[in-house]
């Protein structure tokens, strides 16, 4: 009988299709803020395979692929695809293709069902777009024309090489500064009382320390979520009472839904209205 085992972490990437470079720069910043630092970025690849997107995105389209420092657990691609869908809704001059690479395959996430796709939850399907064999990527009969190209494969090989380098490092992250998505994949494995303290940016450091001390009394693992830029979270990563810290630009209910901590500590600026679904304890500090 087969034995159930947790999956190996995988390497997240996003393909960004755009016509306006300003739209690319804006969306790139949003991806870094939520998914973590970018470790590999391709050159601009002219999108020459179809004119399907021109009415919506314009002409002279380019594709850039980026991969991210934090490894993820495969099931996280569901929430990441939903996140990129929301970004597309806010900025419709861009198309985002999130996926992941592991040793033997490249997987894309999509909202469209087909005979070769598997439903993985919350309206999202997964497709094995390429398989790896004999040192190269091999397409299937259903693989999109652009994903068959040597330009793409050359960069995917670089991501795959980086992925195996990353596997040699520890998981979960050993540094305090991390991302929401990296934490989601590992918190469930920690058999300890976990709490997330949510604060807004630009708060006085003395106020922050007072909030941290109050929250720490209730939990074994304390995570600080900073509504702001990554630099602001990094500035707080030296605080001894904090186990992990990450920045975010979303909503408090997204943190509660993804991390499912035992305690959610919020300061006075946040309301409770959207947290009715949350099964843990919410404490206002």
Structure report:
There is one protein chain. This protein is α/β, with parallel strands linked by helices and 285 residues long. The chain folds into two domains: 157 residues; 105 residues, HUPs (Rossmann fold, 3-Layer(aba) Sandwich). Helices cover 29% and strands 28% of the residues. It is built from eight helices and 14 strands. The longest helix has 18 residues. It is globular, with a radius of gyration of 20 Å. The protein starts with 10 loop residues before the first strand and ends with a strand.
Question: How would you summarize what this structure contains?
Answer:
With 285 residues, the protein is α/β, with parallel strands linked by helices.
**Number of separate structural domains:** 2
Could you give the distance between the termini? Answer: 50 Å
By DSSP (H or I, 4+ residues per run), the number of helices equals: 8
Instruction: Tell me the helix content.
Output: 25-40%
Identify low-pLDDT runs.
170-174
């Amino acid at each position: 009988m087969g034995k159930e085992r947790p999956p190996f972490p995988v390497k997240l990437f996003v393909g960004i299709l755009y016509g306006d470079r300003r739209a690319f720069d804006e969306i790139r910043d949003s991806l870094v803020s939520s998914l973590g630092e970018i470790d590999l970025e391709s050159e601009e690849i002219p999108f020459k395979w179809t004119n399907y997107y021109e009415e919506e995105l314009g002409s002279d389209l380019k594709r850039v692929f980026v991969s991210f420092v934090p490894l993820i657990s495969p099931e996280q691609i569901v929430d990441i695809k939903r996140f990129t869908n929301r970004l597309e809704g806010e900025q419709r001059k861009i198309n985002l293709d999130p996926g992941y690479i592991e040793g033997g395959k490249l997987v894309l996430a999509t909202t469209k069902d087909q005979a070769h796709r598997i439903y993985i939850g919350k309206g999202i399907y997964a497709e094995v777009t390429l398989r790896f064999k004999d040192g190269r990527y091999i397409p299937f009969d259903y693989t999109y024309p652009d994903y068959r190209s040597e330009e793409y494969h050359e960069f995917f090989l670089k991501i795959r090489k980086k992925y195996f380098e990353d596997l040699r490092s520890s998981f979960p992250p050993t540094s305090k500064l991390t991302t929401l998505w990296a934490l989601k994949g590992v918190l469930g494995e920690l058999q300890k009382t976990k709490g997330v303290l949510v604060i807004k940016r630009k708060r006085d450091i003395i106020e922050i320390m007072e909030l941290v001390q109050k929250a720490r009394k209730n939990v074994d693992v304390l995570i600080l979520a900073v509504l702001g830029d990554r630099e602001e979270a990094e500035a707080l990563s030296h605080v001894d009472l904090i186990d992990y810290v990450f920045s975010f630009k979303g909503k408090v209910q997204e943190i509660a839904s993804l991390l499912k901590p035992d305690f959610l500590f919020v300061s006075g600026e946040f309301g409770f209205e959207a947290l009715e679904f949350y099964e843990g304890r919410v404490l206002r500090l």
